[in-house]
Hints:
The complex is a heterotrimer, with two copies of chain A and one copy of chain C. By secondary structure, chain A is of the alpha+beta class. Chain A has two domains: 3-69, Arc Repressor Mutant, subunit A, CATH 1.10.10; 79-197, Winged helix-like DNA-binding domain superfamily/Winged helix DNA-binding domain (Arc Repressor Mutant, subunit A, Orthogonal Bundle). Chain A has nine helices and six strands, in the order αβααββααβααββαα. A three-stranded antiparallel β-sheet of chain A has the order 1-3-2. In chain A, 33% of the residues are buried. By secondary structure, chain C is mostly helical. The longest helix of chain C is centred in the middle third of the chain and has 27 residues, at 98-124. At the B-C interface, helix 1, strand 3 and helix 5 of B face helix 1, helix 5 and helix 6 of C.
Amino acid sequence: MDLNKMKSVVEGLLFLAGDEGLESKQIAEILELNEARVIDLMDEMKKDFIQAGRGIQIVEVARAYQFTTLPEHMPYFEKMAHSPTNSTLSQAALETLAIVAYRQPITRSDIEEIRGVKCEKALHTLMTKVLIKEIGRAEGIGRPILYGTTREFLDYFGLKDIGDLPEPPVNLSMELDELEASQLFAKKEITENDQTLE
Amino acid sequence: MDLNKMKSVVEGLLFLAGDEGLESKQIAEILELNEARVIDLMDEMKKDFIQAGRGIQIVEVARAYQFTTLPEHMPYFEKMAHSPTNSTLSQAALETLAIVAYRQPITRSDIEEIRGVKCEKALHTLMTKVLIKEIGRAEGIGRPILYGTTREFLDYFGLKDIGDLPEPPVNLSMELDELEASQLFAKKEITENDQTLE
Amino acid sequence: MSYSIKLDSFEGPLDLLLHLIDKAEVDIYDIPIAEITEQYLITIQTMHELQLDVASEFVVMAATLLSIKSKLLLPKKEEQQLDMSLYDYDMDEMDPRDDLVQRLLEYKKFKKVAEQLREMEMGRSHVFTRPAEDLTPYVREEEQPAIKNVTLFDMVQALENMIQRLKTKDPVTKVSRDEVSIKDRMTEIRQLVKVGGGHVRFSQLFVNDVSRTEIVTTFLALLELMKSKAITCVQNQLFTDIMISEVKGGNNSGFE
């Protein structure tokens, strides 16, 4: 594989990796190169990107290479976020909203459990748009906030009441349960390993 | 804003937009340019990307510009990525989909009339994959459901819009004649070459 | 028949007919009905002998072919007389094959298009993209725009996408300590069931914002109790809570 092809493949890889990024070791495996060679390659690419005036840059976060946008372009991204054609909800917000709708009342940590990622920002967005609200506190330590959907949520989607929500196309609730279960089992393995370590 | 800055900003915008993409109208709003100028700019950037041997490309899907990786790099991504098209459709589903795409809005019985077989299962598959949806009811007895294609349909096949569908063959009975004609032309060419060789 | 055909590879009677016409290398506008009908019937017969499911559509088409064949055999005059009462005079000239030819051409058109779609599908499956970034960080607090263009469907779709995404992802591994033993939890559950008069809802087992480990332990404890037939679990409907009930006269200890 020549240098240009390598750079081209790495660009595709980093594009797909998103904010999880890729470590030099992972890139080395995929390209079948040694890691030192990859580190050199990445340094070279960083410079290439700056020199070419590219709109994305390569940064290293927690030992992983990832693409990010340029800070000086911030005003345009703000505009994009405010664009009337773009005033829909982000995928993250939609997912969170769906989980709240189908599983309310639900705490933040339960939502995060299902989604596998933090959702503080998404919850904040949904609260600001009055699609969800605090509907109480769970019992127990810390008495975490319980979230539920609002009247505005029903209005917006033209629902009479929450029981009016559509059956998900696939057997969503079962899938969710399975997913939770599989994550639980993954956890169980870890716990058991832990015990054997003791 | 100079051209290079514009291109750089657009790159950042498309990077953030991911698989949702951005329409020329949206880009025009954000950059405060007119839409025609944006379309030119995008055409130019498409070429730039190819020329520079970039690892991502600009494609137009469902009227929105988006970045995708290059098909020739597929082997490197298989391990880590999710494809917009991860399983292929059955022949029955594909034929049914073709009929819906070209004849929408269309009822199930009209589709079955054309295919000569029942297609309940195929329709169900296509609905589950959100490639088609109910877009209304026909007049008359039973008010049967009318089906049409979705945005996901465009995405699935990488189509700009529904007008981007391949032209259906106009006159199939001509095929034989065309074949003969093309063979004649081929023959003629050879004859001509023959002559020039002489 | 001089050639063999894969019987299960036909999408329907029209597909089979197109295949036979292709093989016979005849003009679709001038189908030798007798010949094609014979081959069609042989194919159906073979399907039957191989105990393949011959869908009713294939049989209906056989009947159609036979009917066309017999119409063609009728002397022209008689046909005219028969038709006169039913159709206009200009219909007299109609070839009984016309309807079928039109259907075949129409179907063939979509078969061709389907082929092209197949290629496009393949092309698309070779490229990848990334999910859109959450733009919320770029939104200034004071002016959150109202939502637009979001449908219920979008929401459900988002959930489905998430499931697909999570399914393909390796679970993130974080090590934590097991604080409550399964045995302890089993005892607790049995107490809760007793306090609840023989029943307790699944959700009631988690009164506070519990950790994953606790959920796991509870879950495993439940499985143990079910295995030892000390309790039963019933869920009436999707989304509804699971009801945990004591088994009357079941294993009272719940322990091995």
